[in-house]
Automatic annotation (TrEMBL):
Name this protein carries in UniProt: Origin recognition complex subunit 5
GO molecular function, one term: ATP binding
GO cellular component: nuclear origin of replication recognition complex
Keywords: ATP-binding, DNA replication, Nucleotide-binding, Nucleus
ORC5 lid domain: residues covered: 216-283
Gene3D superfamilies: P-loop containing nucleotide triphosphate hydrolases (3.40.50.300)
Organism of origin: Mionectes macconnelli (McConnell's flycatcher)
Record's subcellular location: Nucleus
Assembly notes: Component of ORC, a complex composed of at least 6 subunits: ORC1, ORC2, ORC3, ORC4, ORC5 and ORC6. ORC is regulated in a cell-cycle dependent manner. It is sequentially assembled at the exit from anaphase of mitosis and disassembled as cells enter S phase.
Protein's job: Component of the origin recognition complex (ORC) that binds origins of replication. DNA-binding is ATP-dependent. The specific DNA sequences that define origins of replication have not been identified yet. ORC is required to assemble the pre-replication complex necessary to initiate DNA replication.
GO annotation terms (biological process): DNA replication initiation
Orc1-like AAA ATPase domain location: 21-167
The keyword Ubl conjugation is assigned to this record: no
Length: 433
């Protein structure tokens, strides 16, 4: 029995819509109840919120396109100013009718001009007899525009005296939107995160035609068992499923196992899923590089240093400056003579470390150091002689700009500047290689 029923729309279209939006039937049914029939006035503004990859944008696009409702769909990140946003809405309204030629951009500087031009566009395109839906995706960007934009969109039906509904899609709650002055509150609708059962059902629909649905569903079950605790993003999980499926099928292709040998298939895919755990959300390497690494049976350690957090291209002396800064931040001053001087003489081991120095310096955090100590360590770790030229000092400034070093306190003219190294040990190891 179909879950979506509405007397104003054909049953075949609703059945097709239900197949396109799995696990979101209740939200679609509620939206259809709010929308009503084509000629009926709907609620002036609707606010839909939920975490990323919860289906907000997809459900709205699929609903409006499948039922062929007149609509405008605008991404507020692309239209980052009020003028771009208003002009894009007018252009799409004028292009709603497929029988007319594409419209040319119309200059629109204020919301008063937008209301006037919007009413003219509705009359010219004969859209006043049915509801027009204006969907603003990533609507949190409206808060960065003029103060009147958001309240005006919430009352657009009243301002234009026309049958129009504004739908706002966002990842944040309405309480973070509400302006300081009073405004019309929209009807709020929440899209919850997909559960593991929903993800299993949605991802299993993408099974390749050369394999059975049960075989691909078993693979998705294994994938979710590994990644669900660290990743709930449907887009990321779909990417991981497509990326690792070929490795899961290898025993079947070689004839070493059949599609029901779940244990053999799991033992074959387990090490590769563990390697994929290192790249969740990061996109450190492309899909072709990942497949090449799988084909070469590379070790997980080969992925180290690929991330932007552990791999930065720096000039030659900047690398040594960064290493010297790390040594100066985490080694006490009293150890410099022992570590960086060739003929430092004998050092008593009994009282070498004080009680408070027995704690790991990595737990205590980086300590500030003066410029002359940084240069002294630099001269000792570089093989050849380095002259203190303007190039060296400019590279120190560049490291501060890149936030690899931070300047501590004021630049005292008597004592000179003091710095602190802000990078991690893994970062320094990658640079030191």
């Amino acid at each position: 029995m179909p879950n979506l029923e509405h007397p104003a729309y054909p049953a075949a279209a609703l059945l097709h819509l239900e197949s396109l939006v799995p696990c979101r039937e209740s939200q679609v049914s509620l939206l259809l109840s709010i929308f009503g029939e084509r000629q009926q006035f709907s609620f002036p503004s609707i606010f839909i919120y939920g975490h990323t990859s919860s289906g907000k944008t997809y459900v709205m696009q699929t609903l409006l396109n499948t039922l062929q409702l007149p609509h405008v769909f605008v991404n507020c990140v692309e239209c980052f100013t009020s003028r771009l946003l208003l002009e894009e809405i007018l252009i799409q309204v004028q292009n709603c009718s497929s029988e007319t030629e594409p419209a040319s951009p119309v200059p629109c500087d204020t919301f008063n001009d937008f209301v006037r031009l919007f009413k003219q566009a509705l009359v010219s395109r004969e859209l006043q007899d049915q509801t027009l839906y204006i969907v603003l995706d990533r609507a949190e960007q409206l808060r960065e525009m003029e103060a009147n934009i958001l309240p005006a969109f919430l009352r657009l039906q009243e301002l234009t005296d026309s049958n129009v509904t504004v739908v706002l899609l966002s990842e944040i709650v309405w309480e973070l939107f509400r302006p300081n002055v009073g405004c019309f509150d929209p009807l709020t609708l929440y899209f919850p995160d997909y559960s593991i059962g929903h993800l299993q059902k949605i991802l299993s629909q993408n099974h390749p035609p050369e394999y059975t649905a049960d075989f691909y569903a078993a693979y998705i079950n294994i994938l979710l068992g590994v990644f669900y605790m660290v990743c709930r993003d449907l887009k990321e999980l779909r990417h991981l499923a497509a990326l690792n499926f070929s490795k899961y099928c290898e025993p079947v292709i070689r004839g070493e196992a059949n599609e029901r040998d779940t244990r053999k298939l799991w033992k074959n895919i387990e090490p590769h899923l563990k390697k994929a755990m290192q790249t969740v959300y990061l996109r450190e390497i492309s899909s072709s590089q990942w497949e090449r690494l799988q084909h070469d049976d590379g070790e997980p350690g080969q992925l180290k240093g690929l991330s932007a957090h552990t791999h930065v291209e720096l000039p030659y002396y900047s690398k040594f400056l960064l290493i010297a800064a790390y040594l100066a931040s985490y080694n006490p001053v009293r150890t410099d003579k022992r570590f960086f001087l060739k003929h430092h003489g004998k050092i008593k081991k009994t009282n070498f470390m004080k009680k408070h120095e027995k704690t790991s310096n990595h737990l205590l955090g980086p300590k500030p150091f003066p410029l002359d100590r940084l240069l002294a360590i630099l001269y000792s770790i570089v093989d050849k002689r380095v002259a203190p030229t303007a190039n060296i000092f400019s590279q120190i400034t560049s490291l501060v700009t890149l936030q690899l070093l931070s300047m501590v306190g004021q630049n005292d003219q008597l004592e000179g500047p003091r710095y602190k190294c802000t990078v991690s040990l893994d970062f320094i190891r990658a640079v030191a290689r």
